[in-house]
Amino acid sequence: MDPAEILKKIRTLEIKTRGLVETAFAGDYHSVFKGRGMNFEDVREYQPGDEIRAIDWNVTARMGNAFVKKFTEERELTVMLVVDVSASGNFGSTTQSKRELAAEVACLLAFSAIRNNDKVGLILFTDRVELFIPPKKGRSHTLRLIREILFFEPKGRGTEPALALDYLNKIVTRRAVVFFISDFQAPDFSRALAVSGRRHDFVAIHIHDERERVLPNIGIITLEDAETGDQIEINTADRTTRARFSGLVDEHEHELARMLRRNNIDAIALQTGKDYLPQLRSFFKQRERRIGIR
């Protein structure tokens, strides 16, 4: 794509996701993710009903009247988008690839964070860490993140989530909100996930395509693994073959779900070609109810 096409695509994505943020999603985001704590702001005279533990005894002794400390919530968060850009993300049986869906969801989350005055950073990974952009604020920074997610050309083709999570745990030392966006077609990474789940507020976003779950009945076809180049010829007209294919996918997804539950990781499943906003909003509402935020 030439620069004009790239800018047009990024601008179109910005307009769409910013509209969603302004009209529907930002409140969901704001209500679920807490700041790091409380900041001291000022002192004021004690009033009946104030918490006794909030009394500032030094000021009280100096002024001769009881004074209490005033605090404001520290809302600013660090949000990390950890996005899988391996070769399998280029697949899409609709007008949208998995990578394009990942970019759109990341864009929505990034603009929600920026509207909430949070900092956003990015890690792109394949079978290696491809790119790290430190957390910052601002529209131009967010647009850079989206450009990289959409158009970065990775050197690797495979998927190694453990390497990305190990890197995250080393480079982001304070607790952050982590959105890990991947199709999760990867080897076991439970050890690194367990560490990240303890250190951060971790949300896994599983991107998939319907054709990766259900084979169409179209006769003999050749399937190629986008990451390894391996090919296999199968007869999709055979009902047993189609059932076995779907069974292997179900087994993989059940194992992924068990691993996430075991590590208390929240998860969202999104499909290419389908409206993702209802699922995201449903997830945030359920999370809000579960953790008791009002």
SSE blueprint and pairings:
Layout: H1 3-32, E1 37-45, H2 57-63, E2 67-74, E3 78-84, H3 98-115, E4 119-125, E5 129-136, H4 139-151, H5 161-171, E6 177-182, H6 190-199, E7 201-208, E8 220-224, E9 231-235, H7 239-262, E10 266-271, H8 277-291
Parallel strand pairs: 3-4, 3-6, 6-7, 7-10
Antiparallel strand pairs: 1-2, 4-5, 8-9
CATH homologous superfamily annotation of the largest domain: von Willebrand factor, type A domain
Q: Give helix and strand order, one letter per element, not per position.
A: HEHEEHEEHHEHEEEHEH
Number of domains: 2
Order of strands, main sheet, comes to 5-4-3-6-7-10
Number of strands: 10
Could you tell me the strand content as a percent range? Answer: 15-25%
CATH architecture of the largest domain: 3-Layer(aba) Sandwich
**Which regions are unreliable across 5 or more consecutive residues at pLDDT < 50?**
none
Whole-number mean pLDDT:
88
Secondary-structure-derived class: alpha/beta
DSSP summary: helix tally: 8
- CATH class descriptor name of the largest domain: Alpha Beta
The end-to-end distance, rounded to whole angstroms, is 46 Å
Structural summary, described in words:
The protein is of the alpha/beta class and 294 residues long. It contains eight helices and ten strands. The chain has helices at 3-32, 57-63, 98-115, 139-151, 161-171, 190-199, 239-262, 277-291; strands at 37-45, 67-74, 78-84, 119-125, 129-136, 177-182, 201-208, 220-224, 231-235, 266-271. Strands 5-4-3-6-7-10 form a six-stranded mixed beta sheet, with helices on both faces. It has a two-stranded antiparallel sheet with strand order 1-2. The protein has a two-stranded antiparallel ribbon with strand order 8-9. Helix 1 (3-32) packs parallel to helix 8 (277-291) and helix 3 runs antiparallel to helix 4. The mean pLDDT is 88.
